[in-house]
Design a protein that fits this description.
The complex is a heteropentamer of chains A (337), B (329), C (329), D (344) and E (549).
Chain B: H1 2-28, H2 34-37, H3 45-55, H4 61-74, E1 76-78, E2 85-87, E3 94-95, E4 100-101, H5 102-137, H6 142-156, H7 159-173, H8 189-223, H9 226-233, H10 238-266, H11 270-275, H12 281-291, H13 294-322
Antiparallel strand pairs in B: 1-2, 3-4
Helix pairs in contact in B: 1-13, 5-6, 5-8, 5-10, 5-13, 6-8, 7-8, 8-10, 9-10, 10-13, 12-13
Chain D: E1 10-21, E2 24-36, E3 41-46, H1 52-59, E4 68-76, E5 79-80, H2 86-92, E6 97-100, H3 104-107, H4 114-123, H5 131-144, H6 150-153, H7 163-175, E7 181-185, H8 193-210, E8 213-217, H9 221-227, E9 230-235, E10 238-244, H10 245-250, H11 255-263, H12 307-310, E11 316-318, E12 323-325, H13 330-339
Parallel strand pairs in D: 3-8, 3-9, 6-7, 7-8
Antiparallel strand pairs in D: 1-2, 1-4, 4-5, 9-10, 10-12, 11-12
Helix pairs in contact in D: 4-5, 4-7, 5-7, 7-8
Chain E: E1 18-22, H1 39-48, E2 54-56, E3 67-69, E4 77-79, E5 84-88, H2 103-112, H3 125-129, H4 143-152, E6 153-156, E7 159-163, H5 171-174, E8 203-209, E9 213-218, E10 236-240, H6 245-254, E11 262-264, H7 269-276, E12 285-298, H8 306-315, H9 318-324, E13 331-333, H10 363-376, H11 378-386, E14 388-393, H12 396-410, E15 416-421, H13 426-431, E16 439-444, H14 455-459, H15 476-487, H16 492-509, E17 512-523, E18 528-529, E19 533-534, E20 539-540, E21 546-547
Parallel strand pairs in E: 1-10, 1-11, 14-15
Antiparallel strand pairs in E: 2-3, 4-5, 5-7, 6-7, 8-9, 9-10, 12-16, 12-17, 13-17, 18-21, 19-20
Helix pairs in contact in E: 8-10, 10-11, 15-16
The chains are: A alpha/beta (337), B mainly alpha (329), C mainly alpha (329), D alpha/beta (344), E alpha+beta (549).
The structure holds adenosine-5'-triphosphate (2 copies) and magnesium ion (2 copies).
Chain lengths: 337, 329, 329, 344, 549
C-alpha cells in the first residue's frame, strides 16, 4: 500500500432505503446517494469535491468518516481498512480523521460554551484533564484566530465566521491527520468566506493536514484544492488535478458547471459559449440508465442511454466518465504535476 | 393512498386486539371478586360459588377471553335451565347489575354521550379558535392577555367544580335555565337543548382553553411564514390571507388534537355526565366501576379504545387531505 | 499574508461588545422582565413554602386540621357566624359538620396536592424524556417499540381506567408493603398518572429529538467518537429543557386537578387527611348554606393552576423569543 | 451616471426602519435614499444583515410588525407608500410592484396547487375575469417561465416541484400582472449554480419582454456583474456606495465595496492566490460604531481620533462617472486603487 | 314519637297527573319482587306493582304499621302450633297481561327465592322457614325436588298453605315482603325479570332505563274493586335516577315546573336549616323517626374486655357525630337497638354509667375505664392504644364521621385506625368471614314490627347481620338460649318482655354501642298530595301520592 496515501475510498456505495409497500410498510426503494465512488487523498494534499445539491457529497463525507456505514465498498485510512471498525478502534479512527461542518449555526451546540465545545473531543475520547484541556483549548482558539478569553462564551454570541472557526478548532483538537470539510463556507458571507478559506489553507500547511474539501461551487474549491472530483447523482464524473479540470474540463457536466458560475466582470456579460443546462437533477431513487447525465447533456447519444461510461484516465492524469469527453490538450496534461 | 388507509386500518385492528387483551386481563386479574360483591349483605359461601358460576368467573381467564371474543362475532348465551337467554352478536357481554346485554346498554347510552360530545366539540372549536385568533391578531395587547387568561383559567378548573359552579350559578342564582333534565332530541328538542346547553358550555370552556393556545401560537407561527409574506405581496386582502394562508396552516395541528380529544369524549365524558345527570356512557362506566360490573367496564373501555384508535386513523388520513405534502401518491 | 492567527484581532474587539451570557441567562433575563410571570413565580413559591411549613404555621396560629370545634357550629352543624365563621380563631372559617379549621386544612391539603403534582410531574417527565430521547435518537426498532407502547397507552380511556383501578391497585400496593391508607393511595395516584402521562412528554420530546438529531452538532459529537449516552445526556438533553419545562409547567396543574377530581369521586385521600380535592368535593355541597367554604379551596386551586400556566407561557416566551417576530399582520 | 429624463419608477427618500427588541433598537435601515428609473436593473449588494431585505420589504410596506418604525418617503408612481391607505398599497402590491423572495422552498403556500396560487395573484387584480379564463392566463405564464407540460403541472402542489421550478412559479406569480417594478430579494441564492444561471437568464429575458424595472438584491457580485446597470452597496443599514456597474467593478470608491470585490474568488484565478479578506465581522445594528460604521474593519481608516471614527460620512458624488460614495476618503481610495497600492 | 303528617291541603286526593320521584340512585336496586329487599324500594313496589298476600294499612302514623289483607281474604290462618300458615286468595286480581292471579303464581313466586344463583339479594325468610330440603329453585329443580317444594307450599283451590320447619308466630308479617308476591311462571324471564316484572298492581312499567328513568303508567287490567288497599291517584309515576344530591334538594327547594309534582328521598344535612327554618316549606316538609337504629358493632373476639368497650363508648363524641349529620335531625340518642316504634318490645334501657345524656364525651370516665382496663385486661387495653381498626364506607359523610371518631377517641388514649372501603363494596367487605376489624358501623330496621327481626338478626350467631363476634363472650350461651325461647313464644306480650330483657342484656355487655334512633326528613313539591310517611318502610307511600292541580 502506498504510504503516501492518507485516505482512500474504493468503490463506495451508500443506499438509503425508502418508500413503503405492503401491509407492514417495509421500504421497497432506495435512494442511491453514493453509487460506486473511488477516491485517493494524498498526504498533505487537498481534494476538492464539487457537485450540485443532492448529488451525494455529504453522504460521501459521512461514509468516509464512518458516521454511517457504507452499503458496500471500502474506506482505507492511513493504510488501515476502517470500513467496519467499531468500538475502541473506531474511536481511534475518529482521532485521526475529523470533520468540519457546513452550518455554523447547527454544528455548535447552543447550550454549550465555546470551551465545552472545543474541549468535547477530549471528553468523549476520555482524555479530559482538568488542567491540560483548558490550556489546549485556548491554544486551539488562538490557532484558529479566536480570542482565548472568549472561552466561556456561547455560540450565539459569535458571528458566522467566528462560529466556523470554532468548528475548525474542534476538528483540530485531536490532532487529526485527515480533515473532511463539508461545505465549510457555503453558509458564510462572501467577505467572511475568504477569511475561512485562508485560515484552512494556512492550517493545512502548518499542520500538514490532508484535506477533503467539499463545495457546491467550483470557484471556492479552485483556491484550495490540488485535485478536484466532480460528482453528479452519486457518481464521480470527473476527477483530476485542479488546474487541468478547471482549465480544460473534459466532462460536459464539469464544463456546464464552470460556465454557470457568473463571471465577475461586467464586460464579459452575456458572453458567448456559455452553456445553460436544461432541467433539474433527476431523482437519485431511479437515476437514468446508462450515463446519468444524459438527460441534461447536449451531447447525449443513444450509446449514453445504453451503456454506463466508466471513469477512465484520459492520459493526462485526469479521469473522466464520459463517452464523448472534451479533448485534452496534451501540453496541459503534462503540465499538471 | 388506498394502501396507506388499508395499512392504517390493519394496524388499528392489531392495536384494538392488544387493547382488548390488556383490558380483559387487567380487569379479570383484579383482586376484587365480583361474585362476592353481587350478593350484598346476604353472602354465604354457597351463594358466592353459585354466583361465580352465574357470572362466568368460574372459567379460566383464557376461556373467558375466548368467550368474550367469540361473543363479539356470534353472540353469547347466559343463564341456566329455563331462565337461559342470549346476547346476540356483536355481544360485549352481559351486565348482571343492569340486567342487559352490554351492547344494548352502550347502544342506549351512547347517543347521549355523542350528542354531548358533538355539541361541546362544535362549541369549543368555535370558542377556542375564535378566541385564539383574536389573541393572535392582537398579540401583546389587552385582548391577548385576556384570551391567555381565559385559556389558563379554563384548563385550571377541575370539571366537577366548574360544572357544579356553573350549574348552581346559572340555574339557581340567576335562574337563566331550568334544571337540566335530559330528553332525547327526537322526543323533545327544546328540552334537549335546554338540558344540554350547560354541559356543552362547561365542556367547551374547559376544553377550548388548549385550543385557544394552539390557535394563537399556530397563527403567530404561520404569520412568520415566507409564503404569507408572498401572499401579502400579491395584494391579497387580510381576510383572504388569514383564511387561506394563516388559518389553513394553523388548523392542521388543531385537527389532529381535536380528533383525538373528540374521540376521548365519545369514550365518555365521565365527570360532566355525572355532574349534569346525563344518562351517557361515561356515567354508566363510572357506575360500572362502583358496582364492579366488569362486563360493562370492559365494554365501555373497548368502545372508547375503538373511538380513539379510529380517530387516530381518521386524523392520519385527514392529515393527508389537509396537507398535500403528506399525501402519499 | 501574515500568519493566520493574527488575522482577526478586530473580531476580538467587536465580540467583546456583546455581553457574555449563556442562553439560560438570557432566557432568565427575558423571563424576569415579565412582571406577571414573576408574580406567578412568587405565588408558587409561597404555596410551596406554606405547604412545607404547614405544621409550623398551624402551630403559630394555634390551629389544627383535625381539631373539632363544636362550639363554632350551630344545631344544624353549620358554622355559627357569618361567612363560614371567619374569625380570629378561624381565619378562613370552619368546616361545616365538624368545625375543623379551614385554613389549617388548606395548608395541609396543599402538601398533598403539591406533592402529587410535583412527584407525578417528575416521574412523567423523567420517563417521558428518557423514552422520548431514546426513541427519537436511536430510531429503528427501539423507536418502534416505544411508539407502539405510546399508541397502546393512548388507546386506553385513561381516566376511566384510573378510576376503575384505584381500589384494586391500592390494595395491591398495600399487599406489597406500601403503608396502608393515604401512602398507598398517593403512590397509586402518582404512579397511574405517570403511567398515562409519560406518553405526552415522550411524544413531544421524541419530535424535538428527531429534529435535533439532524443538527450537525450531534454529528460532530459522533465524529469525535462520542458514545450514545454522551450524545443523549450531554448534547441532546440540554437542548430539550425548553420544551420540557413548558410541558412540566402545563401538566403539573393538570395533575393537581386530577387529584382533586379523584378525591371528589371518593378515590382520593382518606380522612382525616386533607387534600384540596377532598375539600373541593365537600365544599360544593355547601354553596347555599356556606358559600364562603365553597370558594376558598376553589380559589386556592385556581390561583395555583393559573400561576403555573402563566409561568409556563412565560418560560416558553423567554426560551423561544422568536415568537415575537410578527412581521406582517 | 446616465441621464434620466423621466420620473423615477421608485424613489426612496431618507428611509429609516428600526425594530424595537428586547436587546435594544435595531436600526435595520438607517437613512437610505435612491431612485430607480424605468427599464433599469438595479442591484443591491451587501453582507447578510445589512438591511437589504428590510429595505425591500418597506417598499410594499411588508414590515408592518408592531415593533417596526418606518420613516421617510417611498414614492411609487407618485404615491407615497408609507403614508398611503392600506387599500391603495394593496392595489400596488402584485400589480404595480411585484416581489420574489429568496427561498422558493417556503415562499409558496403548500396547501394550494401552483395554478391556484398564480391565478390568485391574477384574479385579485382582475376581479372581472372568470376562473376559466384565468387558468388560460396562468398556463400562458407557466409556458413563459419555462415550465414543461404546464397542463399537467398546473394542478400539482409546490412540494412536487424542484427548487428551480418553484422559483419559476414564484416568478410567474410576480409577473402575471405585468408589474412595472420587480423586486427580487436574492432570488437565486438558495439555488444551485446551474439552476441559478437558468433563473437569471429567464429574468433577463422576461425583463426584455415585459419592459420591467428590476431591483435585484443579491450578495453575489458575479450576479451583479451579469445583470446590473446600477449598483447600490449597503453596509450596516446605509448605502455606502452607488455606482454604475462598470464603475463598481473597475473603480470602487468605498473600501467596503473594494474589499467585497477582492475577497471573492473567481475560478479564473489560480490556486493559492491568497484571497483578500475584510477582517472582522459586521457590527451589531443595535450599537453601531461611532462615525463611519465600517471603520473598525477598514484598512484605510485613519486611526483613532480621526474623522472616520467620529463623523458619519454622507453619501456624496465622487469621481466623474456619477458614482456616489459614503467614505470620507473616497477620493483617496479611488486613487490608491487606481494605482493598485491599496491591496496588502 | 314521630310527627307524622299528611301532606298538602285537606280534602280527598284527586285522580290524575304525574308524580316525579327524584333520586340519586342510578336504578331501583331490584324490581324483581323476590330480590327486592330495601325499605324504599319495597314501599314503591308494593304500592304500585307487586301485591302481596298481606300488607300494611295504607295510612300514615301508627295505623300504617297495622297488618291487613291484600291478595288474601284475611291475614292468614295459623295451625299446627305456628308451623302451618294458610292464606286464601280473595280472587279478582289480575296481572298486567290480563291473566288472573292464582295460588300457583304465589307458590311459583316463593319458589324463585330458592334459586339463589339468579335470585340474589332478596330476603331469605322463605328458605329458612319453609319445610323443604335441597330445593334449587324452579329453574334447575328436578321433578322430585319440585314435588317436594309443592308439598311444602301447596295450593288447594285458591288457598296457599305454607308448611314451616319451625313455628313462626308472625309469619303473616313475613308475607308482607314482596318476596311473597305472585309471579306468573309463563312470563318469568329469570335474570331479566328484574328489568320488567309483571305487574299485579295498579301501575305497570312503561319504560325503564337504568341511570335515567323509570316510568310507570296505569295498568288498565288492574281492577280497583279487587284491591281494597290501593287508590292509584296519579296517572303515572316517573322515577328520575342519577341526580346529584345537592341538585335534588335544590330542585325541591325551588319547586319549579314539574318539580312541584315531585318527591325526593330525604334532605341533605347542609340544607336542613334552609328548609326547616323557613315557614315557606311548612306544608311540604316532614321530620320523622324512621325505622332505623344506628349503632357501632364491637368485635367481641378482638376486644374481649368490657372496660375497653366502655372507654370507647364514653370517649365517643356522639354530639359531634350528630351535628355532622344535621344536629337533632340526625335522630335521638338511642338507648338500645329496639326503637320505641316497636311499642310491644321497647322499654327504656339502663345506659352505661357516666355516659353523658347530651351526647358529649365523658373523657374523664373514659380515661378511668382505660385505666381499669390496664389491670383487668392489659393486652386489650394495649391493643386499643395501638389502634382499633375501623372500616368505614368511603363517602364524604363518613370522612367526617371517622375524623370525629379518631379525634374524640384520641383524648382517651384510644387510637382509631380508619380503613376506607369503597362504599358500594362496604357490606360484602366487612361481612366477609375473614374480615378484620375491631369496630364496625351498623344500622338496622326491623323487617316488621317485632323485635324478632332485630335482636336475633343482630346478635345471634344465626343472625344475618351479626358483626359482633359475640359468641366469643362467655355470656353468649345464656343469650342464645333466651333468644331461642323468645322466638317461638307465641304470646306476643310475653315475647315483648323477653326482647326488652335481651336488649338490656346486650346494652350491658356493649357488644354494640347504641347510636341514634334515626330521624329522617322529607320534602315534597307544593302540588303533591297524600304525601305521608309509611311507617314500616320509612318512606313515602309512593303509589298513593296524588297531584293537586
Ligand atoms: N439519511 C438519509 N435517508 C434517506 N435519504 C438520504 C439520507 N441522507 C441523504 N439522503 C439523500 O441522499 C441524496 C444525497 O444527499 P447528500 O446530503 O449527500 O447530498 P449533498 O450533495 O450533500 O447535498 P447538499 O449540497 O444539499 O448538501 C439526497 O437525495 C438525499 O435526499
Ligand atoms: N422584525 C424584526 N425585528 C427585529 N430585527 C429585525 C427584524 N427584521 C429584520 N431585523 C434585523 O434587521 C437587520 C437587517 O435585516 P435584513 O433582513 O434586511 O438583512 P439582509 O441584508 O436582507 O440580510 P440577508 O442577506 O441575510 O438576507 C438584521 O440585523 C435583522 O436581524
Ligand atoms: Mg451536503
Ligand atoms: Mg435578506
Amino acid at each position: 500500500m502506498n504510504s503516501d496515501i492518507a485516505l482512500q475510498a474504493i468503490n463506495l456505495v451508500k443506499y438509503f432505503p425508502t418508500g413503503s409497500s405492503g401491509l407492514l410498510g417495509r421500504p421497497d426503494k432506495s435512494v442511491k446517494a453514493v453509487d460506486g465512488v473511488s477516491l485517493t487523498l494524498r498526504k498533505g494534499a487537498t481534494l476538492g469535491i464539487v457537485g450540485e445539491s443532492g448529488c451525494g457529497k455529504s453522504t460521501l463525507a459521512r461514509v468516509l468518516t464512518r458516521l454511517i456505514e457504507p452499503t458496500s465498498g471500502q474506506v482505507i485510512l492511513n493504510g488501515a481498512d476502517i470500513t467496519h471498525t467499531s468500538g475502541k478502534e473506531l474511536r481511534d479512527v475518529r482521532q485521526q480523521m475529523q470533520m468540519i461542518f457546513q452550518d455554523p449555526v447547527s454544528s455548535l451546540n447552543p447550550r454549550h460554551s465555546i470551551g465545552q465545545i472545543i474541549g468535547m473531543p477530549f471528553t468523549v475520547q476520555g482524555q479530559f484533564d482538568k488542567e491540560a484541556t483548558p490550556v489546549r483549548v485556548r491554544e486551539l482558539m488562538k490557532l484558529v484566530g479566536l480570542n482565548p478569553e472568549h472561552f466561556n462564551r456561547y455560540p450565539h454570541e459569535f458571528s458566522g465566521g467566528q462560529r466556523q472557526r470554532i468548528g475548525i478548532a474542534r476538528a483540530l483538537a485531536l490532532n487529526p491527520s485527515v480533515v473532511i470539510a463539508d461545505e465549510p463556507v457555503s453558509a458564510l458571507d462572501v467577505s467572511v468566506r475568504a477569511q475561512i478559506l485562508n485560515l484552512l489553507e494556512g492550517l493545512q500547511a502548518e499542520l500538514n493536514l490532508s484535506l477533503v474539501f467539499i463545495a457546491h461551487d467550483l470557484s471556492v474549491v479552485r483556491h484550495i484544492a490540488d485535485e478536484v472530483a466532480v460528482m453528479y447523482l452519486g457518481k464521480i464524473v470527473e476527477r483530476g488535478p485542479a488546474a487541468t479540470v478547471y482549465t480544460h474540463p473534459a466532462h460536459p457536466y464539469t464544463k456546464a458547471l464552470l460556465s454557470a458560475v457568473p463571471i465577475q466582470d461586467p464586460s464579459s456579460r452575456g458572453g458567448a459559449g456559455r452553456i445553460r443546462l436544461q432541467g433539474d437533477v433527476p431523482s437519485p431513487i431511479d437515476p437514468p440508465s446508462g450515463c446519468r447525465f444524459r438527460t441534461r447533456c447536449w451531447k447525449a447519444e443513444a450509446l449514453c442511454e445504453e451503456q454506463e461510461p466508466l471513469l477512465t484516465d484520459d492520459g493526462s492524469g485526469r479521469l473522466v466518465a464520459c463517452h464523448f469527453p472534451e479533448e485534452t490538450p496534451v501540453a496541459i496534461g503534462n503540465r499538471a504535476q | 393512498m388506498l394502501l396507506f388507509i388499508i395499512r392504517r386500518l390493519f394496524f388499528a385492528i392489531v392495536l384494538l386486539i392488544a387493547v382488548s387483551v390488556f383490558t380483559y386481563f387487567l380487569f379479570a386479574l383484579l383482586p376484587t371478586d365480583p361474585a362476592a360483591l353481587s350478593c350484598g349483605i346476604h353472602c354465604k359461601p354457597e351463594t358466592i360459588a353459585a354466583n361465580r358460576i352465574r357470572l362466568g368467573y368460574d372459567k379460566s381467564i383464557f376461556e373467558q377471553y375466548w368467550l368474550f371474543l367469540k361473543g363479539i362475532f356470534v353472540g353469547r348465551d347466559y343463564g341456566i335451565g329455563t331462565a337461559a337467554f342470549t346476547c346476540p352478536a356483536p355481544s360485549l357481554g352481559y351486565s348482571f347489575n343492569q340486567h342487559a346485554c352490554v351492547t344494548s346498554l352502550i347502544g342506549e347510552t351512547f347517543p347521549v354521550t355523542a350528542y354531548l360530545s358533538i355539541g361541546a366539540f362544535i362549541l369549543w372549536m368555535m370558542i377556542g379558535i375564535g378566541v385564539g385568533a383574536i389573541a393572535a391578531l392582537n398579540k401583546g395587547k389587552w385582548q391577548d392577555r385576556l384570551a391567555t387568561a381565559f385559556a389558563s383559567v379554563g384548563v385550571s378548573l377541575p370539571t366537577f367544580y366548574f360544572g357544579l359552579l356553573a350549574l348552581f350559578s346559572i340555574v339557581i342564582w340567576f335562574q337563566i335555565l331550568p334544571f337540566p333534565s335530559y330528553e332525547s332530541p327526537l322526543d323533545n328538542f327544546p328540552a334537549f337543548i335546554t338540558a344540554m346547553i350547560l354541559p356543552w358550555l362547561v365542556l367547551a370552556i374547559i376544553s377550548a382553553a388548549s385550543y385557544t393556545r394552539l390557535t394563537r401560537n399556530g397563527m403567530l407561527e404561520a404569520m412568520n411564514e415566507d409564503f404569507v409574506r408572498l401572499g401579502v405581496a400579491k395584494g391579497l386582502r387580510l381576510r383572504v390571507i388569514l383564511r387561506r394562508y394563516v388559518m389553513r396552516q394553523a388548523l392542521i395541528p388543531i385537527v389532529t388534537i381535536a380528533g383525538l380529544d373528540f374521540a376521548g369524549l365519545l369514550g365518555g365524558a365521565i365527570i360532566t355526565e355525572s355532574v349534569f345527570s346525563l344518562p351517557g356512557m361515561g356515567r354508566m362506566s363510572i357506575r360500572a366501576v362502583v358496582d364492579s360490573d366488569l362486563p360493562v367496564l370492559v365494554g365501555t373501555t373497548m368502545i372508547a379504545a375503538v373511538f380513539i384508535v379510529l380517530a387516530n386513523v381518521i386524523v392520519d388520513i385527514a392529515y393527508g387531505f389537509l396537507d398535500p405534502r403528506v399525501r402519499v401518491s | 499574508m501574515s500568519t493566520f492567527a493574527e488575522l482577526d484581532h478586530d473580531d476580538v474587539v467587536i465580540a467583546t461588545e456583546i455581553v457574555g451570557k449563556s442562553p439560560r441567562e438570557l432566557a432568565w433575563m427575558r423571563f424576569r422582565k415579565d412582571k406577571v410571570a414573576m408574580f406567578a413565580v412568587a405565588v408558587i413559591a409561597t404555596y410551596v413554602v406554606v405547604a412545607l411549613f404547614a405544621p409550623v404555621i398551624c402551630a403559630l396560629l394555634g390551629i389544627s386540621p383535625t381539631r373539632l370545634d363544636g362550639a363554632a357550629l350551630n344545631d344544624y352543624g353549620l358554622p355559627n357566624g357569618p361567612f363560614g365563621n371567619i374569625s380570629f380563631e378561624h381565619l378562613l372559617g370552619v368546616e361545616p359538620g365538624t368545625g375543623r379549621d379551614i385554613l389549617a386544612r388548606l395548608l395541609y391539603g396543599a402538601r398533598v396536592s403539591l406533592m402529587v403534582g410535583f412527584i407525578a410531574t417528575f416521574l412523567t417527565t423523567t420517563i417521558g424524556v428518557v423514552l422520548g430521547v431514546v426513541a427519537g435518537y436511536k430510531r429503528g426498532r427501539i423507536d418502534a417499540v416505544i411508539s407502539r407502547m405510546t399508541d397502546l397507552t393512548l388507546a386506553f380511556p385513561s381516566f376511566l381506567l384510573i378510576i376503575a383501578l384505584t381500589r384494586p391497585f391500592t390494595q395491591r400496593l398495600e399487599a406489597i408493603g406500601v403503608p396502608e391508607g393515604n401512602p398507598a393511595r398517593l403512590t397509586y395516584i402518582v404512579l397511574v398518572l405517570s403511567l398515562f402521562g409519560w406518553v405526552y412528554v415522550a411524544r413531544v420530546v421524541r419530535g424535538q429529538t428527531l429534529s435535533l438529531r439532524e443538527r450537525e452538532f450531534v454529528e460532530a459529537a459522533r465524529s469525535c467518537g462520542a458514545s450514545n449516552s454522551h450524545i443523549i445526556f450531554k448534547e441532546l438533553l440540554p437542548n430539550l429543557w425548553a420544551p420540557v419545562i413548558v410541558i412540566v409547567s402545563l401538566s403539573l396543574p393538570g395533575y393537581v386537578s386530577t387529584e382533586a377530581t379523584l378525591s371528589f369521586l371518593g378515590l382520593g385521600m382518606i380522612a382525616p387527611a386533607a387534600s384540596w380535592g377532598v375539600m373541593l368535593g365537600d365544599s360544593v355541597k355547601y354553596y347555599r348554606s356556606d358559600p364562603t367554604y365553597l370558594f376558598i379551596p376553589g380559589i386556592a386551586l385556581i390561583v395555583l393552576v393559573l400561576a403555573f400556566n402563566i409561568v409556563g407561557d412565560a418560560v416558553r416566551d423567554a426560551l423561544d423569543p422568536k415568537g415575537d417576530r410578527q412581521n406582517l399582520l | 451616471m446616465r441621464n434620466h429624463d423621466s420620473e423615477p419608477v421608485l424613489s426612496v427618500q431618507n428611509l429609516q426602519v428600526s425594530f424595537t427588541t428586547d436587546d435594544g433598537v435595531v436600526r435595520a435601515v438607517d437613512g437610505v435614499s435612491f431612485d430607480v428609473y424605468a427599464g433599469e436593473t438595479v442591484c443591491i449588494v451587501g453582507e447578510s444583515g445589512s438591511g437589504k431585505s428590510v429595505m425591500a420589504g418597506s417598499i410594499l410596506r411588508l414590515n408592518n410588525s408592531s415593533t417596526a418604525t418606518t420613516t421617510g418617503k417611498i414614492l411609487l408612481g407618485g404615491v407615497d407608500v408609507l403614508s398611503a391607505d392600506e387599500s391603495v398599497v394593496r392595489g400596488l402590491r402584485g400589480s404595480e410592484v411585484a416581489m420574489i423572495f429568496q427561498d422558493p422552498m417556503s415562499a409558496l403556500n403548500p396547501y394550494y396547487t401552483v395554478g391556484d396560487q398564480i391565478a390568485e395573484a391574477y384574479l385579485v387584480h382582475h376581479p372581472e375575469v372568470s376562473k376559466k379564463d384565468a387558468r388560460q392566463v396562468v398556463l400562458q405564464m407557466m409556458i413563459k417561465v419555462g415550465i414543461p407540460s404546464p397542463e399537467k403541472r398546473i394542478d400539482e402542489y409546490p412540494h412536487q416541484f424542484s427548487g428551480g421550478m418553484r422559483q419559476r412559479i414564484v416568478i410567474a406569480i410576480a409577473l402575471i400582472n405585468s408589474p412595472r417594478l420587480l423586486i427580487a430579494d436574492e432570488p437565486t441564492t438558495a439555488l444551485d449554480v446551474t439552476v441559478q444561471a437558468q433563473i437569471l437568464d429567464l429574468m433577463m429575458d422576461l425583463q426584455k419582454e415585459f419592459g420591467m424595472t428590476i431591483l435585484l438584491i443579491t450578495h453575489d457580485l458575479g450576479v451583479v456583474a451579469e445583470v446590473a446597470q446600477d449598483v447600490i452597496v449597503m453596509y450596516a443599514g446605509r448605502i455606502v456606495e452607488q455606482s454604475d456597474v462598470e464603475a463598481i467593478f473597475h473603480a470602487p470608491t468605498h473600501p467596503y465595496a473594494w474589499g467585497l470585490l477582492g475577497s471573492v474568488s473567481s475560478y479564473g484565478a489560480s490556486k493559492r492566490g491568497d484571497l483578500f479578506t475584510i477582517s472582522g465581522s459586521p457590527p451589531s445594528l443595535i450599537s453601531l460604531p461611532e462615525g463611519c460604521a465600517f471603520h473598525p474593519r477598514c484598512v484605510h481608516s485613519l486611526g483613532s481620533g480621526s474623522r472616520c471614527q467620529s463623523e458619519k460620512p454622507v453619501l456624496r458624488p465622487v469621481g466623474n462617472n456619477g458614482s456616489r460614495s459614503a467614505c470620507h476618503l473616497a477620493d483617496e481610495v479611488l486613487v490608491s486603487i487606481g494605482t493598485g497600492t491599496g491591496a496588502r | 314519637g314521630s310527627s307524622n303528617s299528611g301532606g298538602g291541603p285537606a280534602g280527598a286526593p284527586k285522580k290524575g297527573g304525574t308524580v316525579h320521584i327524584l333520586t340519586l340512585g342510578e336504578q331501583i336496586a331490584h324490581l324483581d319482587p323476590q330480590r327486592n329487599y330495601t325499605g324504599t324500594d319495597m314501599a314503591f313496589a308494593v304500592s304500585t306493582m307487586h301485591r302481596t298476600l298481606t300488607s300494611y294499612k295504607y295510612a300514615g302514623g301508627d295505623e300504617g304499621s297495622e297488618i291487613t289483607a291484600d291478595l288474601a281474604t284475611d291475614t292468614g290462618t295459623v295451625t299446627n302450633e305456628g308451623k302451618t300458615w294458610a292464606f286464601t286468595l280473595a280472587g279478582g286480581g289480575t296481572f298486567e297481561d290480563g291473566s288472573p292471579i292464582t295460588c300457583a303464581d304465589v307458590a311459583y313466586g316463593v319458589s324463585r327465592t330458592f334459586a339463589t344463583d339468579i335470585i340474589t339479594d332478596g330476603p331469605s325468610y322463605a328458605m329458612s322457614y319453609i319445610d323443604v330440603a335441597d330445593y334449587p329453585g324452579p329453574y334447575k329443580a328436578t321433578a322430585d325436588q319440585q314435588a317436594a317444594f309443592d308439598k311444602a307450599v301447596n295450593c288447594v283451590d285458591q288457598t296457599v298453605t305454607f308448611n314451616l320447619k319451625v313455628p313462626v308466630a308472625d309469619f303473616n308479617y313475613t308475607t308482607t315482603l314482596t318476596a311473597f308476591s305472585p309471579v306468573p311462571k309463563a312470563l318469568d324471564t329469570g335474570e331479566n325479570y328484574d328489568m320488567k316484572p309483571v305487574s299485579s298492581g295498579p301501575y305497570k312499567i312503561e319504560s325503564y332505563e337504568i341511570g335515567k328513568s323509570l316510568v310507570l303508567v296505569r295498568n288498565d287490567k288492574w281492577d280497583q274493586a279487587s284491591d281494597p288497599l290501593r287508590h292509584a291517584y296519579a296517572d303515572s309515576i316517573v322515577y328520575e335516577f342519577g341526580l346529584d344530591a345537592s341538585v335534588i334538594d335544590e330542585r325541591m327547594i325551588k319547586d319549579a315546573g314539574d318539580d312541584q309534582f315531585a318527591v325526593s328521598e330525604g334532605i341533605q344535612p347542609e340544607n336542613l336549616q334552609t328548609i326547616f327554618e323557613d315557614d315557606a316549606f311548612k306544608n311540604r316538609r316532614v321530620d320523622y323517626l324512621d325505622p332505623f337504629v344506628t349503632y357501632t358493632n364491637v368485635n367481641v373476639k378482638s376486644v374481649p374486655c368490657l372496660d375497653v368497650r366502655k372507654a370507647v363508648y364514653l370517649a365517643l363524641d356522639r354530639d359531634a357525630l350528630r351535628k355532622a349529620g344535621g344536629g337533632p335531625y340526625t335522630g335521638d340518642y338511642a338507648d338500645g337497638f329496639i326503637k320505641p316504634a316497636l311499642a310491644a318490645d321497647y322499654a327504656k334501657s339502663k345506659m352505661l354509667e357516666g355516659l353523658n345524656e347530651d351526647g358529649t364525651p365523658n373523657v374523664e370516665a373514659a380515661k378511668a375505664a382505660m385505666e381499669a382496663a390496664k389491670t383487668s385486661c392489659p393486652e386489650v387495653a394495649q391493643h386499643a392504644a395501638d389502634g382499633l381498626v375501623y372500616p368505614y364506607p368511603d363517602t364524604p359523610v363518613w370522612a367526617k364521621a371517622i375524623a370525629i371518631w379518631i379525634e374524640s377517641q384520641a383524648k382517651a388514649g384510644i387510637t382509631i385506625k380508619g380503613e376506607a372501603v369503597e362504599a358500594s363494596k362496604y357490606w360484602p367487605t366487612v361481612m366477609a368471614p375473614d374480615a378484620v376489624y375491631d369496630l364496625a358501623r351498623g344500622g338496622w330496621a326491623p323487617d316488621w314490627l317485632n323485635a324478632s327481626t332485630v335482636i336475633p338478626e343482630l346478635f345471634a350467631t344465626s343472625g344475618g347481620f351479626n358483626l359482633t363476634h359475640n359468641d366469643a363472650d362467655p355470656d353468649y350461651a345464656e343469650f342464645q338460649t333466651a333468644v331461642d325461647a323468645a322466638k317461638v313464644n307465641l304470646d306476643r306480650a310475653a315475647q315483648g318482655k323477653q326482647w326488652q330483657e335481651l336488649n338490656q342484656f346486650v346494652v350491658d355487655r356493649l357488644w354494640a354501642l347504641p347510636g341514634t334512633f334515626v330521624k329522617a326528613q322529607s320534602i315534597w313539591g307544593s302540588k303533591v298530595g297524600n304525601a305521608y310517611q309509611w311507617g314500616p318502610y320509612g318512606s313515602f307511600n309512593f303509589g298513593e301520592l296524588s297531584i293537586n292541580s
